[in-house]
Amino acid sequence: QSWSRGMSYCLHSESHLDTGPIYVRENGKLHMVKQGAGSLQNVTPKERPFSLFSRSFSVELCMNREDDRARRQRTDHFIFTYTKEGNLRYSAKSLFSLVLGYISDNVDHIDSLIGFPEQIAEKLFSAAEARQKFTEPVTGLRALQKFTEAYGSLVLCSLCLRNRYLVISEKLEEIKSFRELTCLDLSCCKLGDEHELLEHLTKEALSSVKRLLLKDNSLSDAGLRRMTAPVRVLKKGLENLMVLDLSCNPKITDVGIGYLLSFKKLNCLDISGTGLKDVDAVIKRLQMQIGLVHSKVPLKEFDHSNCKTEGWAEQTVLQWEQAVMEARKPQDKLKSRVTALHFYGKTRRIEEVVKCTLVEPETKASGNLQFYKENIQNCHLPLKKEVAGSHELKNNKKRALPEQERERTSKQKHLCLTVEDWDLLNTY
């Protein structure tokens, strides 16, 4: 009776709605109840296309945001895509991607990556970079140091910070964490002699630098003296330097050029726009002591368009620059203050990006002062692989003898240290 009452209720209540056929299983057989008739018939159900949800069904994914305070972007464990027919398809993410995402979210808690496969480490770095983990103030530095300690030049082998003095000031510790750099461009940053980054150049972590561009940085003889002290005395620091750009630093004089003679591996040098007094004497001195010849045409090695940021952290440096530029945008709260200053006639201070320009008077006075080594032909061009003949070998042996004598005489000169040199060494 209870079954018949429930069935009659389903059949007669809300009869105006078309609920479709109703199937009832009784004694192992399936019966269909026709609506309105109230009778049971043994009818085999017709096959209907299976649909899990109706057309009006909608789904909304709700994720538990436990780290809302940290504003971390959480992802779900499923990937939703659409087929060509417009149907929704979902598939579970691989275990590797789930673990990679979890570790990248907590990359600052990694103890060490030394000995970890670099192929997986690169994917981990990219995942953390996509989450902008390296832009965070404290945890970003700690996470970046784990990668630079383990992979060195793979993280970054070339760094171009030309005209990015704000990035240097905001991310100085992160920049100092990069190791095994081979190219560093600090042109047009107005760093000066006492900047912490220039002092960091003398550290062992940057002994791999082969190309250093310090154009227009307000350097003087004192800055060159500090920068070359480890090379001149301890034979450490920038001893592998091959290309050096010191152009547009009018405070560098003949005395400062003398400190550069300790760079024995130097192949290309640019001192255009410096405050040299006796240019001819400097040209002869560079040629006699380190074999640099004055170039009559500009060298491609000092074309700054060739210097680029290369490595895993290329996008990280761009993120730093973007964050700095966003912070420099004027805020809405300051508009009223600027308007008031303009009304009362006070000069509005506009901070513009420092543009890299040549120092015209000094450049015209000294001319193009770029140097290269003769035995490399033109250092800005690719070297030609030629088989050296017996005659060339004899000439090379003859040239090697005077070079050894020059090294002996230069060593004897370096042994005679002044009191200022000893005081400078004590600071390292």
UniProtKB/TrEMBL annotation:
This is Leucine-rich repeat-containing protein 42. It comes from the Eukaryota. It comes from Tychaedon coryphoeus (Karoo scrub-robin). InterPro entries: Leu-rich_rpt, LRR_dom_sf, LRRC42. Coiled coil: none annotated. The lineage of its organism: Eukaryota, Metazoa, Chordata, Craniata, Vertebrata. Keywords: Leucine-rich repeat, Repeat. The keyword Repeat applies. Belongs to the LRRC42 family.
